Amino acid sequence: MLHVFSSPQGIASPVISRGRKFGAILALAVLSACAAPQAQGINDPYEAHNREVHEINKDIDRTVLRPVSRAYGNTVPAPVRGGLSRFSANLDLPGMVVNDLLQVRLADAITNSARFLFNSTVGLAGFFDPASDIGLYERETDFGETLHVWGVGEGAYVELPLLGPSTERDMVGKVVDVALNPTRLMFSDEFQAGETVAGIADVANERYEYSETIDSVLYESADSYAQGQLLYLQNRRFELRGDEKPTYSDPYEALNVQ
């Protein structure tokens, strides 16, 4: 997941971070693009600083990411863009397997391992996704979820430069995920450079594919920081398989959004 609001793994600040569960955020964003939700009960002691970072992230999006993504989307054919994004996502799988094992979720570890092996071979390094055709779907996870499984609370809400919305727990998780990812040891420096390029291409592709929704939240909302915060936390708590109970009033509950 770009993380909408860390990208679309966050929309308030889709600059660098990536996530793969964009749909739930986008559905909420479409319903609430012109609102200014004031979430209650969110732990945001760093709000003043977070808002400053949020404005910096918006400036980066406005001046760099949005124009670059438009040029990328209008120049590079969709099949090529999709292949690069799948290649990048495939290289995230070994790190997910490590987290699956740390969470003692062996079925997920087996599925992600099989998916990585199948797409890395039959799928030509992940440019294609034959694994999904045989039911081997990605079981997305990260070290932030590992900390959650072992009882670590989410902590305060933070917005990170470039990476966008997060929590103190997930901020630590992002750092550990980089260190734990086996691809850092499995492949050469040249290959890792290619991985970085593919990751940047994936960010640009997601920004291009979801540009209308992201723009509506970032530039048409009355308070894009509050909106991004709410959507990120809703999506993140949903990603944690329903284990994390919301601690705030959901202003959309009355709309019966499923």
Please provide a brief summary of the model.
By secondary structure, the protein is mainly alpha-helical. It has helices at 22-32, 47-75, 78-102, 106-121, 130-133, 143-149, 168-180, 183-186, 189-209, 211-220, 224-239, and strands at residues 157-160, 164-167. The longest helix has 29 residues, at 47-75.
Question: Could you walk me through the main structural features you see in this protein, from its secondary elements to its overall organization?
Answer:
It is built from 11 helices and 2 strands, in the order ααααααββααααα. It is mainly alpha-helical. It has a two-stranded antiparallel sheet. The longest helix is centred in the N-terminal third of the chain and has 29 residues. The N terminus and C terminus are likely disordered.
Structural topology:
Blueprint: H1 22-32, H2 47-75, H3 78-102, H4 106-121, H5 130-133, H6 143-149, E1 157-160, E2 164-167, H7 168-180, H8 183-186, H9 189-209, H10 211-220, H11 224-239
Antiparallel strand pairs: 1-2
